[in-house]
């Protein structure tokens, strides 16, 4: 590696990038080989000398300004806020003085940068807190040396070190130079939660001002000098090749410069398309309209949704790939007098981020630079290494704000395609997916069918519980995947203590083989499993003649869950339900957070059902910003409501049917009732925030409708006006 | 191709474009104001909302040729310093998540408040139901519009 490359993201470049001047103290951590616990802390200088690549960085310049390198995407979930909130707490600085810069993709420095699995806080919180604390301790040490006083007599507050006995003060800016020469302490004491001033507080987000005046730069807003625009006609049928294309008319459109064939990887499939490149986007779109492409998609089933679901239902008669079991379900179920069975169906869904997919790529001089709304910059780098035959250090992935992600923007097809087009035309290019392109291509959330069976004992307890899950396994799509492997997400969403309290259970899946690409969609399999499990739990409670919350409580021995139920009862007024109201509850677990939601419905004068209110109780353990948590739960509820009552992607003739918001109906402001979110205070480990609020909504709503009308909804989506 | 002069945020811009090019792309790609967003292109989502003489319109569905002579305001022209009551309220209620739909939401809300200083829930539903927010910020949008109404009244009194 030459020096230029090695210093690609060196402290100096970082300083330039983030507009700092006269930086004197930069510290960060380095994650040593696996097996060692915890990171080691270094100053930038010593790390440079040792040839060590630091992971997350905090820099303080001579004016006292603090800059933090954020290693996660900001797609609305608040990493841009919570990452600095954690560092600022331990560093003892006001959050307003903290600047944040997105880290370009570099797995060597940042470890996994995938923003997924609701992992930003739960994955890095200890290291981020320690980073702040380490810098603080070094600044205190620098001050005590300057004053030749005992370190223990000094403390830090508001970006100053203070000598308690004399009241002398020095600002961080005045100390950074000396502090940078010290060795970071091996151990630092983190603050007690009761002493927090920033963590745990509902502080306003730093990105909000940028998002009310159009200044926040999203991928689609990126413009480079000499940049061309491309749109791509892609195979509408997921599999197949370009047989031929006629670009005469397309090339006649003013502004159109190139028409080229292009590929992109969609799991194990090489998907093809024809790109129209022009000097403005509108011309590219017009050129594409004039383009004629003939596809060869022979050998591919032109299936419809009905066929897919029929196949899944039929498959439930067969054997499962066993994921998890205990005891002897078949025997106990067979002997039992009280058996309950139900089948639940959930739809395929599109991510439909408000910002359609797009990516800017510039491949030149054996280097590739990417800008875009990207959830996993380091994955993009690794993908492009193979595709372009470049070294990883020659690929830079720059992050912009993301206009939504929900899992889709962790997929790598759109940067891949953009890089290939740029290489081919030898110019910087922005590839824009129209809404129709974005919605029709997937990957989609997989549609699922669940068969649940259970036996109840004499007391209101579950004796035996079984779920067979039919549907596509995301893991089976990768090249060389073992299609006989079980789906290890089969029990996602199911509450952990049930595995203790239920003596006989069996969970397994029956994978559906289909070329429709499927992928993580906010809360992944929990988003559909939760509907089956928590609807079925309600059916069992009713069959047992027990209050649905108490029924669950009987099976949830653990204190944490008992407390959650207490809070649900207290906050929602569960025990004061009135006759003319329908109430439903559901509790699911996702990415280490437990969320209970209660929906209250009633009948309008015209007999139709309306939602009066939705309550959510979120237990995500230790947390950083309760207002962001509330916002994320509100947003998850709205998204879940859409998937439960509004939209679905159908397939017909082997193509996606819904391609824009005229047919893929989104929830609107007038569909949204009051939502009240409570965040549980406890000292459990931090869990996810961006996704776990989604799964309980659909079952809680359907359980409420059952409570009001006696009608059980087992298939999503359903029309609220037609219940 | 033809030449069109557009009045945007009090400034005059001359662009060369296909007369059928939607105003949205002229604003974003030719004028270079990227605060106005593309969400659907078919007048379904509201992300592209700008004002014509104070009234909200969908720039994705208006050809650039028909925008000539209109006083166009985009999100960048609402204020220079986030001081518009709707922007203030959006900050106070912490509305945006990803933020992508918010230019359109804010432009619609600003137009609503201009017509109706004290909108009730139904007025808000009517004015805002053409605007999709995939992040689900609707409860906060409702709150923020009410906050903005209060801020505007307070400003008017001062
Ligand atoms: S982009 Fe104009 S309404 Fe959606
Ligand atoms: S804030 Fe993300 S779409 Fe509205």
Major sheet summary line of chain B = 5 strands, mixed
CATH classification, class level of the largest domain in chain A: Alpha Beta
The number of helical segments of chain A is 20
Please give the CATH architecture of the largest domain in chain B.
Answer: Roll
Query: For the record, what is the CATH homologous superfamily label of the largest domain in chain A?
Result: Aldehyde oxidase/xanthine dehydrogenase, molybdopterin binding domain
What can you see in these coordinates?
- The complex is a heterodimer of chains A (723) and B (158).
- By secondary structure, chain A is of the alpha+beta class.
- Chain A contains 20 helices and 28 strands.
- In chain A, α16 (526-544) packs parallel to α20.
- Chain A is globular, with a radius of gyration of 28 Å.
- By secondary structure, chain B is an alpha+beta fold.
- Chain B folds into two domains: 2-78, Beta-grasp domain (Ubiquitin-like (UB roll), Roll), CATH 3.10.20.30; 85-157, Orthogonal Bundle (DNA polymerase, domain 1), CATH 1.10.150.120.
- Chain B has five helices and five strands; from the N terminus they run ββαβββαααα.
- In chain B, strands 2-1-5-3-4 form a five-stranded mixed beta sheet, sandwiched between helices.
- In chain B, α2 crosses α5 (138-157) and α3 packs across α4 (121-128).
- Chains A and B meet through α9 and α19 of A and α1, α2, α3, α4 and α5 of B.
- The site of one FE2/S2 (inorganic) cluster has 12 residues of chain B, from loops.
């Amino acid at each position: 590696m030459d020096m230029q490359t090695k210093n690609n993201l060196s402290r100096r470049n970082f300083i330039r990038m983030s507009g700092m001047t006269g930086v004197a103290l930069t510290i960060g951590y380095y994650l040593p080989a696996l097996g060692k616990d915890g990171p080691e802390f270094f100053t930038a200088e010593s790390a440079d000398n040792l040839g060590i690549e630091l992971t997350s960085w905090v820099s303080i310049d001579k004016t006292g300004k603090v800059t933090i390198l954020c290693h996660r995407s900001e797609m609305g979930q608040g990493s841009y806020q919570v990452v600095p909130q954690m560092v600022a707490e331990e560093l003892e600085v006001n959050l307003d003085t903290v600047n944040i810069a997105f880290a370009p993709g570099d797995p060597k420095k940042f470890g996994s940068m995938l923003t997924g699995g609701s992992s930003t806080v739960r994955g890095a919180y200890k290291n981020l807190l320690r980073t702040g604390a380490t810098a603080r301790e070094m600044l205190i040490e620098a001050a005590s040396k300057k004053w030749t006083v005992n370190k223990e007599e000094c403390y830090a507050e508001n970006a100053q070190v203070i000598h308690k006995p004399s009241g002398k003060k020095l600002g961080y800016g005045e100390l950074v130079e000396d502090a940078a020469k010290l060795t970071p302490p091996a151990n630092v004491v983190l603050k007690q939660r009761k002493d927090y001033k920033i963590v745990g507080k509902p502080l306003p987000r730093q990105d909000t001002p940028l998002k009310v005046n159009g200044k926040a730069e999203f991928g689609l807003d990126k413009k480079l000098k000499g940049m061309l625009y491309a749109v791509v006609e892609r195979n509408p049928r997921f599999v197949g090749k370009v047989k031929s294309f006629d670009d005469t008319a397309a090339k006649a459109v003013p502004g159109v410069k190139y028409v080229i064939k292009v590929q992109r990887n969609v799991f194990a499939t090489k998907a093809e398309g024809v790109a129209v490149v022009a000097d403005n986007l509108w011309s590219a779109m017009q050129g594409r309209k004039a383009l004629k492409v003939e596809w060869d998609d022979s050998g591919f089933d032109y299936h419809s949704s009905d066929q897919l679901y029929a196949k899944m239902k039929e498959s439930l008669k067969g054997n499962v790939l066993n994921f998890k079991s205990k005891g002897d379900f078949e025997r106990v179920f067979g002997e039992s007098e009280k058996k309950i069975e139900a089948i639940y169906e959930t739809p395929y869904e599109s991510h439909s981020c408000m910002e359609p997919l797009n990516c800017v790529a510039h491949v030149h001089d054996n280097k590739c630079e990417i800008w875009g709304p990207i959830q996993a910059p380091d994955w993009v780098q690794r993908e492009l290494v193979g595709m372009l035959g470049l070294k990883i250090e020659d690929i830079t992935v720059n992050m912009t704000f993301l206009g939504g992600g929900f899992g889709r923007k962790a997929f790598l097809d759109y940067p891949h395609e953009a890089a290939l087009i740029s290489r081919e035309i030898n110019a910087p290019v922005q590839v824009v997916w129209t809404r129709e392109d974005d919605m029709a291509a997937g990957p989609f959330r997989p549609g699922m069918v669940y068969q649940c069976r259970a036996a109840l004992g004499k007391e209101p307890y579950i004796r035996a519980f079984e779920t067979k899950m039919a549907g596509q396994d995301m893991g089976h799509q990768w090249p060389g995947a073992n299609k006989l492997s079980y789906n290890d997400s089969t029990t996602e969403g199911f509450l952990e203590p049930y595995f203790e309290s239920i003596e006989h259970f069996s969970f397994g899946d029956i994978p559906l083989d289909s070329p429709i690409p499927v992928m993580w969609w906010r809360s992944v399999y929990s988003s559909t499993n939760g509907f089956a499990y928590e609807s079925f739990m309600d059916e069992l409670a009713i069959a047992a003649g027990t209050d649905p919350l108490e029924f669950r409580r009987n099976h949830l021995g653990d204190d944490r869950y008992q407390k959650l139920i207490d809070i649900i009862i207290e906050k929602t007024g569960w025990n004061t339900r009135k006759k003319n109201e329908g109430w439903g509850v559901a509790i699911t677990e996702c990415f280490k957070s437990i969320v209970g939601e209660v929906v209250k419905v009633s009948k309008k004068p015209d007999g139709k059902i309306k939602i009066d209110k939705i309550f959510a109780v979120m237990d995500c353990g230790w947390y950083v910003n309760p207002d962001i948590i509330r916002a994320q739960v509100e947003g998850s509820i709205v998204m879940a409501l859409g998937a439960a009552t509004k939209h679905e992607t159908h397939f017909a003739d082997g193509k996606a049917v819904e391609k824009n918001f005229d047919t893929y109906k989104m929830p609107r402001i007038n569909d949204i009732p009051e939502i009240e979110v409570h965040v549980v205070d406890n000292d459990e480990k931090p869990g996810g925030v961006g996704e776990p609020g989604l799964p309980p909504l659909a079952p809680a709503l359907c359980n409420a409708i059952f409570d009001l009308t006696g009608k059980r909804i087992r298939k999503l989506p359903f029309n609220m006006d037609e219940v | 191709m033809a030449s069109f002069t557009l009045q945007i945020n009090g400034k005059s811009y001359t662009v060369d474009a296909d007369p059928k090019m939607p105003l949205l792309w002229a604003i974003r790609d030719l004028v270079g104001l990227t605060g106005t967003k593309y969400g659907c292109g078919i007048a379904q989502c509201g992300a592209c909302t700008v004002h014509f003489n104070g009234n909200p319109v969908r720039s994705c569905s208006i050809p650039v040729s028909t925008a000539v002579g209109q006083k166009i305001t985009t999100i960048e022209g609402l204020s220079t310093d986030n001081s518009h009551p709707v922007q203030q309220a959006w900050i106070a209620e912490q509305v945006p998540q990803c933020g992508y739909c918010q230019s359109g939401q804010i432009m619609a809300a600003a137009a609503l408040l201009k017509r109706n200083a004290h909108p009730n829930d139904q007025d808000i539903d009517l004015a805002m139901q053409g605007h999709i927010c995939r992040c689900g910020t609707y409860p906060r949008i409702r709150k923020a519009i009410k906050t903005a109404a209060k801020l505007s009244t307070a400003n008017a009194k001062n």
